[in-house]
Specification:
By secondary structure, this protein is α+β, with helices and mostly antiparallel strands. 35% of the residues lie in helices and 22% in strands. The chain has 13 helices and 12 strands. It has helices at 18-26, 51-54, 64-70, 81-95, 124-139, 151-157, 174-180, 191-199, 205-209, 213-220, 223-230, 261-281, 314-325, and strands spanning 10-15, 35-38, 46-49, 75-77, 102-106, 109-113, 143-148, 166-168, 247-258, 286-295, 300-311, 334-344. Strands 5-6-1-7-8 form a 5-stranded mixed beta sheet.
C-alpha cells in the first residue's frame, strides 16, 4: 500500500436480517419459516425478509404482492419500529464500550474506528469477535462484521461471511481482495451501474483497475474518481460519530390506490405533520421541499421546489407540497406519497473540521 494512504482499524457491524430476527426472537413460532416484515398479500412494501424468505427471492423494497407470489407460504408481520429502536440502542451501548468513534448508518449497522480503543486491544479482529459475542449474549441476535483499513473495505467485507460471520482484510491483502472482487459487490455499485460496467467489460476489480480515471469520469461522472480510488484501496472518509443528515422525510403507502387529489391532500396533511415532528425533534429546518409520488404501476415521480428561507412548520410544508401536487397532471392512481426536506440548516451546526489534525498512518499492525 502507498505510504500516503492513511490506514485505520475499522469494523463494520451489520445485524443479520435485523427486523425479521427481532420478530423471531419475540415470537419463536416464526423461526424457520419464511417471514417478511411489512407488506401484505395485497398491499405495502416489504421492509425486511429473513433468510428463509430470501431463498425464494423475497427482498426488502419488494411489493407484498410479489413476495406472496414468489413464496406463497410466507408470513407477513407488521413492523414494530419502537422495538427495533429499543434493541438498536442496546447494541450501540455495547459499541461505545469499545470506542467513542461510532458512526451508525441505520438501526442495524454501524462503523467503529478501533485504531485506538478503550480495551487497549491491538487486534481489531478479536474486538469484532468479542463485540458480536456480546451482542448475541445481551440481545439474543446475531451480527456479522467486516474488518479492514478503511470504511469501504470493512463494509464490503461484512457481507462476505453472512450470516453470523466475519471477514478480516489485512493491509497486505487489500489489493488482491479488491482485484478479485465481483464488481456488483463493490459498495456504491448498484444494479444499474453494474449493468453499465458489464457492457464496458468490467466484471471484477482487476477489470476496473485497468480503466484510466479519465475514462471512468467520462462514463460515470463524479463517481468515476470514487471507483478509481476504492479499487486501489484508497478511501479516506473517517468514522464520524455525529453524522449530519442531508434530508428528512416521511411517506405513506396506502391500503387503496388514490385517484382523487382531494384524498391525496388529506394524506399529505398527515405526512406533513409527521415530518414537522421529526424536524422539531432534530431541531432542523430546510429550504427544499420534495414531493414523492409512486403510482400504482410502481413508477416513481419526484417534484421539488426551493424557497428562500428555512422552514420546519407543517403549514408551510403542506402549502408547498400542495403546489407541487398540482404542478403536473397525475399519470395514474397513486399508491404512495412522501414529503422530504433538504438543503438543511445543519451546516452551521456542524463542528468545524480541524484542517491541521494529524492522521495516524501505520503501515504494519495486527488485525
Amino acid at each position: 500500500m502507498p505510504n500516503e494512504i492513511p490506514q485505520r482499524k475499522i469494523i463494520h457491524v451489520d445485524m443479520d436480517a435485523f427486523y425479521a430476527s427481532v420478530e423471531e426472537l419475540d415470537n419463536p413460532n416464526l423461526k424457520g419459516k419464511p417471514l417478511a416484515v411489512g407488506g401484505s398479500e395485497k398491499r405495502g412494501v416489504v421492509s425486511a425478509a429473513n433468510y428463509e424468505a430470501r431463498k425464494y427471492g423475497v427482498r426488502s423494497a419488494m411489493s407484498g404482492y410479489l413476495a406472496k407470489k414468489n413464496c406463497p407460504h410466507i408470513t407477513f408481520v407488521k413492523p414494530r419500529f419502537e422495538r427495533y429502536k429499543e434493541i438498536s440502542k442496546k447494541i450501540r451501548s455495547i459499541f461505545f464500550e469499545y470506542t467513542d468513534l461510532v458512526e451508525p448508518l441505520s438501526l442495524d449497522e454501524a462503523y467503529l474506528d478501533v485504531t485506538i480503543n478503550k480495551k487497549g486491544n491491538p487486534s481489531a479482529t478479536l474486538l469484532a469477535t468479542e463485540i458480536r459475542q456480546r451482542i448475541l449474549e445481551e440481545t439474543g441476535l446475531n451480527a456479522s462484521a467486516g474488518i479492514s483499513i478503511n470504511k469501504f473495505i470493512a463494509k464490503v467485507a461484512s457481507d462476505i461471511n453472512k450470516p453470523n460471520g466475519q471477514k478480516t482484510v489485512n493491509p497486505e491483502e487489500v489489493i488482491p481482495f479488491l482485484e478479485a472482487l465481483e464488481i456488483r459487490k463493490f459498495y456504491g455499485v448498484g444494479k444499474v451501474t453494474a449493468e453499465k460496467m458489464y457492457q464496458l467489460g468490467i466484471f471484477t476489480g482487476i477489470d476496473l483497475k485497468t480503466k484510466p480515471i479519465e475514462f471512468l469520469e467520462k462514463k460515470f461522472g463524479k463517481s468515476g474518481s470514487y471507483y478509481y480510488n476504492v479499487v486501489r484501496g484508497i478511501h479516506t472518509s473517517e468514522v464520524k460519530p455525529h453524522r449530519i443528515p442531508k434530508s428528512v422525510g416521511a411517506e405513506r403507502t396506502f391500503n387503496e390506490n388514490l385517484s382523487s387529489e382531494i384524498f391525496m391532500l388529506e394524506r399529505l396533511e398527515h405526512i406533513a405533520q409527521e415530518l414537522e415532528r421529526r424536524l422539531k425533534k432534530a431541531t432542523i429546518a430546510g429550504k427544499t421541499i420534495t414531493l414523492k409520488i409512486k403510482y400504482s404501476d410502481f413508477t416513481l415521480n419526484t417534484r421539488s421546489k426551493t424557497i428562500p428561507y428555512f422552514i420546519a412548520d407543517k403549514t408551510l410544508i403542506l402549502e408547498t407540497a400542495r403546489e407541487l401536487l398540482y404542478q403536473e397532471e397525475l399519470q395514474n392512481s397513486v399508491r404512495l406519497l412522501g414529503i422530504s426536506l433538504s438543503n438543511l440548516n445543519t451546516d452551521s451546526k456542524a463542528i468545524k473540521k480541524d484542517e491541521d489534525k494529524s492522521i495516524l498512518v501505520q503501515l504494519k499492525f495486527d488485525f
